[in-house]
Request: fold
Amino acid sequence: MKAVKIRRIVVTAVVVLVAYLLQCTIFTSLEIAGIKPNLMLIVTASFGFMRGPREGMLVGFASGMLIDVQYGDMIGFYALIYLVAGYVNGLFEQIYFDEDIKLPLFLIAGSDVVYGLAVYFLTFLLRSDFDFLYYLNRIVVPEAIYTIAITLIIYPLLLFINHKLEAEEKRSASKFV
Amino acid sequence: MKKKNQTSHTNRYILLGLSVFCALMMVLSSFSEQAAGPFKVLANITVIPLQQGINHVGGWLGDMKDNFSTMQQLRAENEDLQAQIDALTTENNYLQEERYEYERLQELYQLDQNYAEYEKTAAHVIGKEPGNWFSTFTIDKGSKDGIAVDMNVLAGSGLVGIVTEVGPTWAKVRSIIDDSTNVSGMVLSTSDTCIVSGDLSLMSSGQIAFEQMENNDNVVSVGDQIVTSYISDKYLQGILIGSVSEINVDSNNLTRSGYIIPAVDFKNIQEVLVITTTKAELTGEDESGD
Reply:
């Protein structure tokens, strides 16, 4: 029982770390018109609705913290945004089932738009930069669309990993009984 | 049912706890740099080596790709380069002559400060900011290699940005096209100063804006070079920022503003040069006296 739990934690940590590294290194060369997809948010949201609020929160917190430590101006800013994203997506666990791809796409798109708005309001608006529509058209919406496109590739992979882990957990649970 | 309620309660407590922690860290880290210390150490042993590894693999793949370029291409290039060498040799001779003359004149005028000869160290870019809103990046050299905060970063001949944070083996650089950057600039030909500021809305067109240039009789035209000015306390004097692409007189008739095309191609920066002297050292200001 314990071993399975540790395994899940390790696998989740590796997924977060790999996502972060990809985001900072390889994804910068995937840029189209200065916009890159938000892989960290895909991972956070996916763990949220696949595994519930708690795991979503922790994954979100970890990925946000990684960004903060290396690139943030203050520690805790992105951590808070991703934390809330993970939690809110976790609330949708109850109406989520594996075969349905519409809900994940919808949730991730929604999260990305809200994420973009949050960053705009908390950084740019507070510096009295009121050109909201420009940023909406130039960054928030394109980023959401691009992220959706990448989700179609990444999400099945995350789903596969989750399936593997769940199968393992079931097997060991039945052994235990 | 009861159990379920309980878990959702615990979840809420965790959410609340972590949120408060985040808020606390935000407040702490905006007051003191120390707060981020433990996290930086953690990043240092986990993420940075991996990023450097990926960078190495990327560089290796790039080399492999280059190896496949055909023989013919190389020969043609060789011929071109030979011709270029000949031309340059002639030019070099000419310049040598000029240099002697220049040295003589310099001795006459006792110009002891030569801004072209700052000591530099090269570094690789190993990661870029994950979001789309700002443009900062990390390089693979840190305090162990003598990098310190406020050192200027160049690529090629142009200014890229400034070091804002340093870890033992990495440093964070904020580029001059970042929305939150302002640099004090100066027109090379007329010495008129201006403020060069990065702007997210101009980033896609590859430009940065400048403003508050005095509207005097000096003619500043498109193509004039803008360098860092002598009044900046962070940026060393005389580093090329870019060339003017548009200039207008403001409606107040007192100042001029416009746009600059940066000398550096910010889309693909792979290697940068860090100047290992800061302006504070150069001007002899006490570092603690901030």
Summary: The longest helix of chain A spans residues 132-176. The helical segments of chain A are 2-24, 39-51, 53-71, 77-90, 102-124, 132-176. Chain A touches chain B through 51 residues (CB under 8 Å). Chain A has one domain: 2-94+101-172.
